[in-house]
Amino acid sequence: MSLSANPKPLDESNLRDWLKTQALALGFDGMRITDTQLGPATERLQAWLAEGRHGQMEYMQRHAELRSNPELLVPGAVRVICVSMNYLPPETDFDAEWQRLEDPTQAVVSIYARGRDYHKVLRNRLQEFANLIEERIGKLGYRVFTDSAPLMEVELARKAGLGWRGKHTLLLNRESGSTFFLGEILVDVPLPIDQETEEHCGTCTSCIDVCPTQAITAPYQLDARRCISYLSIENPGAIPVEFRKAMGNRVYGCDDCQLICPWNKFAKRTELPDFARRHGLGQATLLQLWSWTEQEFEQRHEGSAIRRIGYIRWRRNLAVAMGNALASTKVDHADKESLRAALNEALPVADDLVAEHIQWALAVTS
Q1: CA 216 to CA 226: how far, in whole Å?
Q2: For 128, what's the count of Cα atoms within 13 Å in the CB-facing half-sphere?
Q3: Which residues of 146-170 are buried (b: 16+ CB within 10 A; e: fewer)?
Q4: Does the pLDDT of residue 66 top 60, yes or no?
Q5: Which residues are catalytic?
């Protein structure tokens, strides 16, 4: 879309309230506005990349300059409309989530990924929001984002006042904890700016203490190479052996630092059906998910964020969890025999990456 030239300041006293009303009507739970200046955050990003903490996420290094300067994404952009959308389904119970983590035969998928792909849900609504803004104030230059381009969205949302950075590096706010998605609209119109909010983590270190792989190396410092979400989703190769036991039965992502966070006691449940769990995710056993063929994986994860990792990584993750179940004293003999039989049956025809993880899984019990 072409950019509007020399946008004029807007003096409508009720514009801010109108924007918030429209955002809430579209299903967003928060809406704030900030400028495009990232300040010290760009230096912290460069230091994090220089230390190699991004692992094999080469796109972060490749697009570092774009991340540091949103105006390179949308020339002439002066404001960022930041929105949040709660994703916690009504049936979610944190105590039950902890209990599933304690049962090695269960397959634990991160809560956010059990429903529809949030990229699609937010992007469509952001586009509707942008269309409404154009109808109200006239032609503008803009672009919508939701974790889909090199944009430091958490930092921008923090600046806009949607929350503060928790010690696990996720955004927190007092009404929704951390269980919400973020989206942005970069615009070339000087909309009124909101103020940052205060931090409220205090001396709490629960997220740091609970991390299974000690990926939170210090307050506000995350080493992605150790993070189970990175290892099970972004990492294209073998799961490093030193982290396999710690993965437990987590087969896609990890919620531990959010489940333990005191602020998530106040997390609001979403009313959107898009984020309700599908295909038994949240209840399935390892053997049930292992039994899926590649065609079933593609069909059942259609419209899901999980589909992007592909069948091979999915099986890789399941094989690690099955190995951990075989090594656990909590699993009875009959269940272990079923797990072992399933792995042995799959081994002769498995992809090389999956085969290596199956072999590991079978060997850790001997």
Answers
A1: 9
A2: 13
A3: bbebbbbbbbbbbbbbbbbbbbbbb
A4: no
A5: 147
Write the secondary structure of the chain as one string of H (helix), E (strand) and C (coil).
Answer: CCCCCCCCCCCCCCHHHHHHHHHHHCCCCEEEEEECCCCCHHHHHHHHHHCCCCCCCHHHHHCHHHHHCHHHCCCCCCEEEEEEEECECCCCCHHHHHHHHCCCCECEECHHHCCCCHHHHHHHHHHHHHHHHHHHHCCCCEEEECCCCCCCHHHHHHHHCCCEECCCCCEEECCCECCEEEEEEEECCCCCCCCCCCCCCCCCCHHHHHCCCCCEEECCEECHHHCHHHHHHHCCCCCCHHHHHHHCCEEECCCHHHHCCHHHHHCCECCCHHHCCCCCCCCCEHHHHHCCCHHHHHHHCCCCHHHHHHHHHHHHHHHHHHHHHHCCCCCCHHHHHHHHHHHHHHHHHCCHHHHHHHHHHHHCCC
* Burial class for 135, CB neighbours closer than 10 Å (0-12, 13-18, 19+): exposed
Beta bridge partners of 221: 218
Does pTM top 0.85 for this prediction? yes
pLDDT at position 38: 85
Torsions phi, psi of 252, nearest 5? -160, 105
Query: Is residue 278 within 8 Å of residue 304, measured between CB atoms?
Result: yes
Beta-carbon contacts of 322 under 8 Å, excluding residues fewer than 6 positions away, are: 286, 290, 339, 342, 343, 361
Q: In this structure, what are the phi and psi dihedrals at residue 292, rounded to the nearest 5 degrees?
A: -65, 135
**pLDDT band for position 10 (cuts 50, 70, 90):** low
Beta bridge partner(s), residue 165: 171
- The structural domains of the chain, with segments of one domain joined by +, span 15-91+111-187, 206-265+279-363
**278-287 residue pLDDT tens:** 888 999 999 9
C-alpha–C-alpha distance, residues 330 and 79, integer Å: 54
Report the b/e string of 269-301 with b at 16+ CB within 10 A. ebebebbebbbebbebbbbebbebeeeebeebb
